[in-house]
Amino acid sequence: MRINVAKRAPPGSASSEKKVSSSRYPFVVELPDSATVDELKAAIAKQVSTLQPDRQRLTFGEKKDALELGNSLSTYGIKPDDTVYVKDLGPQIGWQTVFYIEYLGPIIFHFIVYNFQSVFYGQSFEHSDVQR
Question: Is the dihedral of CA 74, 77, 79, 85 positive or negative?
């Protein structure tokens, strides 16, 4: 099954009136008839090396609903020579990284201010029993 892959133009832009094309888009990927969204994302990543599967948001038709991982393309009514639109979501970071930044950052900041108070306040203070 041949699937056309194109970029969707933002609504209201001058290029939304006509087809959006660049040096890469649109292009065609060849997939088996029982292909899934995962296989389509992998095929797109093979064609466009900077667009890893976790950076892709795929949509089909006018509904603009994202194609969910694990579903077959036939679930969405995608037939040979249909066009699937791709959007680059940009670099993605894992939830663990966000967790460490959110919770470890304030702890480290407090430690630095507490132990290097002369740098921040210009003088040293005697810590109370509660602060020790």
Answer: negative
pLDDT digits (tens, 9 = 90+) for 23-45: 778 899 999 989 999 999 999 99
Structure confidence by residue, pLDDT tens digits, 98-118 = 898 899 989 999 899 888 888
Q: CA 132, CA 119: separation in Å to the nearest integer?
A: 19
* pTM for the predicted model, two decimal places: 0.65
